[in-house]
Amino acid sequence: MTADLLRVLVVDDHPLFRFGVCTLLGNVPVIDVVGEAASGASAVSAAAALAPDVVVMDLHLPDISGAEATRNIVTSRPETGVLMLTMADDSESVFAAMRAGARGYLLKDAEPDEIVRAVQAVARREAIFGPDIATRVLGFFNTAHQNIEPVFPELTGREREVLALIAAGHSNTVIAHTLILSPKTVRNHISSVFSKLRVADRAEAIIRARDAGLG
Predict the structure, then answer these.
(1) Could you tell me which of 131, 128, 5, 137 has the C-alpha nearest to residue 56?
(2) Strands 104-107 and 31-37
(3) Which of 5, 35, 84, 130 is the most exposed place for a label (fewest CB within 10 A)?
(4) Residue 14 DSSP SS3
């Protein structure tokens, strides 16, 4: 990022909303909207070609998810910050974005000046979240800190995440999407969980997990 010009790429599949964000940011003297994209794949290509300082990314896109696009972008360009700007306010979406490497997460009903401040903060490598999202993130880490001894210590952290999603009733497809894993990797994790917990099937695993407070 230069001292006086912040390069931004805007990604959203809704043309009117994308136009609004581009107009909002383009009216800020220190921001240069260098491009826009309507899909995850085009966002990845545009980020590689345009070298933006910040990508403003929707989560739900018509091809690959915003989380997957984010992972691809930050893997190729770690210096690029990604700000999620989305309607999705559920915990799974928030943490999927964080795991993918997003530095910020705002909901689309955020005030215009809040969006501008978030873009500038992400460019400074700060983590920034909308008020409701920040409360959820802090609550998650506070709870994690209080529960120093994890349930099912024989499982890896990833296996516990998979088990929690199983206990919540999610299919393998949803688990793969949420954790940004391949279906085969999810199946391997589930097989390992069943083996370590000595359960015969998914139903028994769900009972064990829910008894332990997961799901």
Answers:
(1) 128
(2) unpaired
(3) 5
(4) coil
Structure tokens at 35: 């491009």
What φ, ψ does residue 33 adopt, rounded to 5°?
-80, 105
Q: Which CATH architecture has domain 6-134?
A: 3-Layer(aba) Sandwich (3.40)
Residue 55 to residue 41: CA distance in whole angstroms = 13
Torsion sign, CA atoms 84, 89, 92, 94:
positive
Residue 130 φ then ψ, to 5°? -60, 160
Element spanning 104, H or E: strand 104-107
| pLDDT tens digits, 69-127 | 999 999 999 999 999 999 887 777 888 888 889 999 999 998 999 999 999 999 999 88
Threshold 0.85, pTM exceeds: no
Find, among 44, 49, 54, the residue nearest to 22 by Cα: 54
Q: What tokens appear for 139 in the block?
A: 């609550």
Return the pLDDT at 78. 93
CA 99/CA 125 separation, integer angstroms: 16
Question: What kind of fold does domain 157-210 have according to CATH?
Answer: Arc Repressor Mutant, subunit A (1.10.10)
Q: pLDDT of 164-204, one tens digit each?
A: 899 888 999 989 888 888 899 999 999 999 999 999 999 99
